[in-house]
Amino acid sequence: MKSTFLTILFAVLLLPRTTLAGDFASITYRGSVDPGGSVSARVTSPFADPGEMGIVWYVDGAVVARNSGTKEQEIQLGEVGVPIKVTAIISYRGAQYKEEISVTPALIDVLWEAKTVVPPFYRGKAMPSHDGVIRTMAIPRFSADDSNEPVFANFTWTKDRVTQIGRGVGAQGAQFLGAWPGRSSEISVKAVSGDRSIDGVVRIGSRIPEALFYEISPSEGLKSNKAFAGTVSRSDNELLVGLVPFGISLSDFNKSRIQYTWKVGGETVSQGDTRDFARLKLSRAKDPSKTGTVKIDANIQSTANVMQSGDGKFLWNFTK
Amino acid sequence: MEPTQNDNSNNKRIRFMLIALSAVAIIAIIVIVVVLFVKNLRTPTSPTGIDIPAGENAPIIPGGSGSNTGGSSGIDAGGLIPEKQILVKLWDRGVSGYSISGTGAEAVIRLFDRTQGLFAEVNPKTGEKRVIADKVLMGMHDAYFLAGDRVLVRALDEQNTIHTFMYRFVVSNGEKPYVLGDPIALADNILEIGVSPDGARAAFVIDNGDDASINLFDAALERVSEVAKVPLTEWLPSVTNDGRVILAAKTSADYSSGAYLVEGGKLRMLVPGNIAQTVLLDGSGETAFVSARSGGGFAGGFRPVGSVAREQTDVPFATLAEKCAFGATRIFCGVPVSLPSSRFPDLWYQGLITTQDALYSYDANTISRTLIASPWQELKINLDMMDMKTDDVMVYFIDKSSGALYRALLASSEGDVSSNEE
Predict the structure, then answer these.
(1) Size of interface A-B (CB pairs under 8 A)
(2) Which of A40, A112, B110, B133 is spaced 20 to 30 A from A20 at the CA atom?
(3) Predicted ipTM?
(4) Could you report the per-residue pLDDT of A222-268, keeping only the tens digit for each?
(5) Which pTM was predicted?
(6) Which residues from A are below 8 Å from B348, CB to CB?
(7) Which of B350, B384, B385, B399 should be substituted to probe chain A, the one whose Cβ sees the most A Cβ atoms within 10 Å?
(8) Strands A231-234 and A309-318: what pairing?
(9) A226, B139: Cβ pair inside 8 Å?
(10) Residue B411 carries which DSSP code?
(11) Which residues are CB-neighbours of B247 under 8 A, at least 6 positions away?
């Protein structure tokens, strides 16, 4: 009896350890799943102290590291759409456990545009301002092979981590209003297609609108290739100046809700609203031999939103 | 009961009437099809499918015969350019669109001067100039030359609506100036136009208010087709010679650009937006030149289009992709001597700053950079280069401040003419 017991005990002690899979622990990772980038993976468990775990990490079947349970493991990612199998063999109090996850690199671009005023034929981006409409668009990429790209993904849009501003299959775009001047809105989007998902985030800061000045020429109209700034030296007897309220809400502009105030040499010379770009004709003194400098100021103010306001100035140095 | 003679006659009559009616119907269908077919050939349709009669909504053309016609209205002619001079001003100001016509020794530059409303040609070797249209178009903003003697012209009205028209140079006996044909109005609010390297196609970004239409214009067929509808309008379109439309997102100092292929009505990522500030694609759409903020300045590089991995060949200068042009084996760029540290390129787009540029070429195969022209050193002038084009014999660009058109002579294959190599 005793020898049988000892034999059995000896056999049990010599038996190879079996690896137990199941819900003992799980692998999580953090970081962006950009192709060619990396994520930090770690093991968590409700049943065990990570400090007592030994972990062997495998990526696609090859050993990449052995470390303690408290350490994160950096996992290199490959091409977009090519999944990586991450395996952790966990040793804990004489038992082994196996956990696995798959990480698939993906990309997402979060584009946006502000619906605010820009000079005609402008090739840059419109500037966001307070309460101006901002539209977004997400373009995900799940696969390197175009034929494997999903026709539709499911999008969820969130503003400042709290407010949902859009969701649904094919909801590639969303819309919201700009933040207070000097502040930013954080727009995040999650795109999911089957078992693949990608998160994107963009911060969009609001600025104060400003007045941009351009010469208006009889033959060319508003000459938006060159703005008046600083000191402008011209020998013209007259100068027709157009004002573009850069960054003002397009909606307010189109509804003639923008009040313009012009000052020449500190004195108000013109006030009013217009749906067009405001303009002012500057005439120098009748004596063409007189030269000098005069300051031109302009203020723009939306009558619908006190935060939609701005100003600008330049010096006209009239020369011979 | 046997059918009577009357019954037989009636049946024959009915049969005859049915056959006659059928024949009439068939003939009518054929006529309708032919009429529609011929009509489509003659009259291009707007994106909405409504025919626009030629001449409707035409811009103001002062007089019937125009002014400033012919070669004698103050336009220079004749060889004024020293043979080996590298940097030459071809047109003094106001150039807001040009193209390279012909190749090699036969190349001429067609341009539109918006200050005078003139269409003109300039010989880049001799400097000889001539007006090529019998009318002037005042109040136009810019022009885009297409193949087949066609040109797209845009104008802004007082309500800030952009109007676009297509004109044809009617070449009757080959003598210039050509007759400028009646305009054909295209859609309103075409915000941006990109022309394929061979001039056969153009891509439009049309602002619909709530979204944007991306359209492809076939110059030979004079036909527009919508290829996508997208929520945003801020795109710089380009077209490859095989008709692929690629959109680069407009950029600002705090925001990166990306490039996207229009395919199946959707946008597919070609160049991810997290790596580029500005993007320029070569004519085949296979290689992109990207520039992005790096540290306190800009850095540029080449990357294969369509690969979303991070491989990129860096170039040893920093500039905007808009100041560059692809040649057959090299890229040519206007490189600013210095760049502002903030709000760039926004300040440049707004016209608040200009850059002082030198012209370089870069060969990605040999990894060599060559200084082609330094305007300040050679001519004591500052040039802010943009809208660059090349035929690998010369490089052309417009100075943003003045609208003057310049050309730079490239070194021959036997060796440099007189460039400064670094």
Answers:
(1) 128
(2) A40
(3) 0.80
(4) 899 899 999 999 888 888 999 999 999 999 998 888 999 999 999 99
(5) 0.80
(6) 124
(7) B350
(8) parallel
(9) no
(10) P
(11) B205, B214, B235, B236, B237, B238, B259, B260, B262, B267
